[in-house]
Amino acid sequence: MKITFPHMGNLYIALKAVFEELGAEVIIPPKSNKETLELGTKYSPEGICIPFKLTLGNYIQSIEQGADTLFMWSGCDVCRIGYYQALHKDILKRLNYSIQLICVEPFKTIGEIYVFLQKLKTISADTSYLRLAAVFKKGVELIHKVDALDDLACRIRARAEEPHKVDEIYAAYEQNIMQSKGYQETNQVLERYRKKLSQIPCDSCKEIVKVGITGEIYTVVEPFINQDLIRRLGQMGVEVDCSVTASQFIREQIDFLPFISSEKGEVHRAAEPYLDREIGGHARHTIGNTVRFGEKNFDGVIHLMPFTCMPEIVAQSILPTIEREWELPVLKLVLDEMTGEAGILTRVEAFIDLLKRRRSE
């Protein structure tokens, strides 16, 4: 079995280690790029969101490299991601690709975690359920450690005396991650580069602009689609707080377990005056987290969403009210295959200049 999965930020690091622990050969698609998007757009339905197009492009590139099994997640209530697996499978079949698709639904009960472990067993039939549960736990730990390292890089990049040092260390970290195999080696790489980032000299007196990022999870965590926004903001001296991450999403999926906690209740509390129910995707989180950024006195918020994403369109219509009531500037960016780097960066730079002027007044 040669298994692959679509890119979504750095989630590939934990998935790679988990499947290697199960003895599978892992085919990691090239990082999402222009060719990925062109491939996905060519074969996707007109009007579908850009995450669908990029994940399809990831699949095609991996299959061309020899992958025969595709791993995909589903769910998010009425978000169109629930249809991804069926549409992807149909498109790939019409392209004469013979593949096996393993699709994981969100967890809401112990029974659904057991169903997930059964699907993992198709990857490694001889592995016991106890071993599968242990590997699953290791994967969750890695997801949290990867996001913690990314958060550390964001904080240090904004304050570093030489911000380019962060990018140099991070590039070396990504190279070493690709060369590591399994949980132990991956964990060692994460710890080694966490220490290296922590040793970068920082300017403790530097005035920092704090910006929260909200929106649909794929557009927030995938650097190709958002023009590497988080790194670019750090280079501008901006500390970024991403409200939706893979680790946060996983915690919310399994917070019914007695030893797992999440901030879902707080997010829903903050969103309730404006949106008191789930409408799909991350719309409720967009509203709740924007309010929470206002409560924490952030300088501003950037809202990211794919073109045609209905849940985020609803959220976008509510944000002006929050912006007015909390006196919190919000920049709204809609992303698709026609989005240009120059246009996005011009708007972001103007927004940051606005926040700096507001802070100095």
Automatic annotation (TrEMBL):
Is Iron-sulfur there in the keyword field? no
Q: Where is the DUF2229 domain?
A: 8-72
Annotated keywords: Kinase, Transferase
The terms under GO molecular function for this entry are: kinase activity
KW Transferase (keyword) present: yes
InterPro entries xref list: CoA_activase_DUF2229 (IPR018709), Dehydratase_Activator_Redct (IPR051805)
Q: Which PANTHER family match?
A: BIFUNCTIONAL PROTEIN [INCLUDES 2-HYDROXYACYL-COA DEHYDRATASE (N-TER) AND ITS ACTIVATOR DOMAIN (C_TERM), BIFUNCTIONAL PROTEIN [INCLUDES 2-HYDROXYACYL-COA DEHYDRATASE (N-TER) AND ITS ACTIVATOR DOMAIN (C_TERM)-RELATED
Q: What is this protein called?
A: Predicted nucleotide-binding protein, sugar kinase/HSP70/actin superfamily
State the organism of origin: Geosporobacter subterraneus DSM 17957
